[in-house]
Amino acid sequence: MTRYDIAVLPGDGIGVEVTHAALALLQALGPRLNRQFVCTEHAAGAQHYVNTGESLPVATLDACRRADAILFGAMGLPHVRGADGTEIIPQLDIRFALDLYAGVRPIRTWPGLPVPLSDPRAAHIDLVLVRESTEGLFYARGRGRSEGQGADACVYDTMKITHAGTARVCDFAFELARQRKAQGKRGHVTNVDKANVFASMAFWRQVFNERAQAYADITTDHAYVDAMALNLVMKPWTCDVLVTENMFGDILSDLIAALVGGMGMAPSADIGQHHAVFQPAHGTAPDIAGQGIANPSAMLLSAAMMLDWLAVRHADPALADGARAIEAALEAAFVSGAVRPRDFGGPSNTADIVRAVLERL
Ligand code: ATP
User: Fold this and answer.
1) Is the pTM of this model over 0.85?
2) Which DSSP helix (H) or strand (E) runs through 154?
3) 146 and 23 fall within a common domain
């Protein structure tokens, strides 16, 4: 039986709860696909930092490097801070350490769940945001430069945009649009930047245009990030694939999650050339942690994205069948009315949703 080693980093808060939901699903799916998922949990996160002084131990990172894929819950606790006042965020460390340059954030409307936008076309939202994840403004993390004292104090965070970093994430977005076109979707990439103001963003746009030459089958357009924030609320059903800088992507990925009901329905993947991390787009949700009421859907869908990635990487289409089975079981659970997550005003706990999905798998 083909075996896949999955490094599992549950983390903090609801990260732990939704990770265990995903593990239950993978355990049930393995025998059905005739595949073995060997899932090994590793320590990391804000609580681990409190206990040991380390947020992402070397042994955990090494295990991630050795694994076929990495499944990640959520990390960070609001009261746990580093010396500079910022949160403990190992998910950023891992992106930089493993060079996971493409942050993939797909969202779609789910039949059976309420849609926040009243326009009937909102029933057809299906888009993917690709966020550059190794440079941009986040490159400044840990490198902020302070000058002066008191009333003269000034702090600089500098955005870094490279040709190579931009080209590879644009290529990723074009390839993704190609895959989606093959599935009957639009095959369109919108470049989101602020090229009218910043030299770094004008350069980003120039590189996007260069790379677009290689994808004559994919249509393109450009949007400034502020206008895109408006359009994503006014007419998100017109979008297919968006590609953008790290900080813009950080903000817009929360916005697009809201279009389909919130963070509980927003999966994500952070993909590099050799490694990939799959995690829900949400954080540790301290306000609901420990109650067993988190919506596990984003995590289950992240596990499906992991199966899709492994399917391509290992030329193992059965895993893609597994991904479709997860999506279909989740959709069937919502459409039947058997469950409605709490973040949609329903009564269902995490365990109820997992049970409903397992029954329909
Ligand atoms: P981070 O900074 O790590 O992104 P955050 O505190 O800004 O974290 P989240 O932890 O994602 O954001 O929580 C934002 C809101 O969404 C909270 O009210 C939280 O309860 C809710 N939320 C997030 N994930 C889920 C989920 N899976 N199920 C239900 N509600 C969720």
Assistant:
1) yes
2) strand 154-156
3) no
